Predict the structure.
Amino acid sequence: MQEKKARLELSEKEMKQFGYQIVDAIVEHHVTQDKKLPVAHATRKEMDSIFLEAAPEDGMPTKELLDFVLKKVMSNSTLMSHPKSYSFVPGPSNYVSVMADTLATGFNIFSGGWASSPAAAELEIVCIQWLLKIFGFPPKKGGGIFTSGGSMANLTAVATARNIKCGKDFSKSIIYLSDQAHSSNIKAIRVLGFTEAQVRIIPTDSEFNFALNKLKNCIAKDRLEGLHPFCLIASAGTTNTGTVDPLMDLAAICKKEDLWFHIDGAYGGAAILAPKGKQALKGIDKADSLTIDPHKWLYQPYEMGCLLVRNHKNLSHTFTEKPEYLRDIEGNTSEINFYDLGIQLTRRFRALKFYMSIKTFGLDAFRKAVTYNIDLAEQLEDYLRTSKKWEVVHSATLAIINFRYNPIAKNYNNKHLDSLNQQISKKVVDSQQALLVTTLLNKQVVLRMCLINPRTTFDDVKETIALCESFAEKID
Ligand SMILES: *Cc1c(COP(=O)(O)O)cnc(C)c1O
């Protein structure tokens, strides 16, 4: 018989030891991470000096390797789940889903077709049903699929829109989105083979509101030129400011003009769980397709995105291919093969983490967490507005707030303020004590906090503001 090692196996005892060591390390991280420094810095040269080597012919003990990985890999990674990671979109995650992901990987469940794993397909159906209900989509007609993230969900959506609205010839087809739409939409459009001339970027005003009149003019002009408007991408929570496009108005335009209405809710969709969010997202249920991103504000570990569609047949019409070797496992149409609804054939079992975390904590815990996040950003806005040192540049919107250091007494010009705020961010990040970077709003450099971590306290936020002030006074 072949030796264990050549079968890529460990003994039962070794497996347990290795597994327990990893669980211990993960738990230790979860209970101590708030006290760690969130930010990691390293150059390529430093990383090469630690890791670069030829693939070793001979192996090494798992414990030794694990110690090395914990010490050198984990410590050289920024902690997106840290309460003081405020930038981009944080990934708060949750332990139950981490374990669920481990379980799904441990059993290496193929979540492509019904026949190979009925329960995995069923759990995806069930979780998608939960989400359809949360977002007010038709439960019977609606459908959806879990993807690796929001980018893949947007790609899946644009591919579907193109197939349904354009058929085979999309040479005259035009797609519309705002200048605040997420870059992944442009990537999706490019990947699908549209030229730049087929994309209309609609400007937003100084408060980042979608210019409805400009959109209408643009569509009318395109029609007059013999072009074929086919799709509009709206943002339900832009990543920059959290602003939600006027979904009701856009839905009406799409209906009238026969456009596919895609809503990118990768950032803000989850806000529907909070009363204020639900209000802000009015009209989200009018979408033909909706991207949400559970690995952001639904607290799932990476990778998990989701596309919901009003009519599930639109996904199967777009993605079903029947290769010979999948003939025998067709099954009954109610027994969904998720490989027929999206791009991937082999898929990891993403539904399990969503399912287990909702079953463990209950949806109400998620509602409370999202509500807390939205309130925290508003609390910070109140705090900054009563300070003589800070200017709120964009109000707290779906847990995002943009602000800049701008002491009233000093009367600095914009150029100086840009440089000052850039330097504050750099000092904070260099100190590793908080992940707080800038963005550009109306060409001004501003600090941006995205407060979707339910473990971030108001004290954490105030400490970070105080840290910024202490750096600012030194730069000044
Ligand atoms: C994050 C984000 C995306 C991309 O999602 P990934 O999960 O990073 O692929 C798309 N749109 C918006 C609005 C986002 O915030």
